[in-house]
Amino acid sequence: MLYKSLDSTVPHARDMSCRYLRCLASLAARFPLLDGVGNIIPSFVWHDAFHPSRFTTQRSISLERASTLFNLGAAMCQQALACDRSTPEGAMSASLIFQVLHELLRLS
Q1: Closest CA relative to residue 74, chosen from 55, 49, 43, 44
Q2: Number of domains forming the structure of the chain
């Protein structure tokens, strides 16, 4: 039952993380995001998963990219673990997901 509920949410989380990473890359390419006069310094807000009323604000696009890559890796691992690895097809698809994740993290 757990795997059935993950089937619909994990690909969505993966797709949204990939879309957000593309937006961050586009933002970094178009604007100077460094400290200095006249530069844009965006703030990124993260909420605590266990205490949603607590949050922190960071001004680092590198930290934001790293955090998003971590979340993407977690979502893809969940998707690979949800595959039925007792069959050859399921083991192959789980292996493929892990290989894609490896390449994504290697290139980032």
Answers
A1: 49
A2: 1
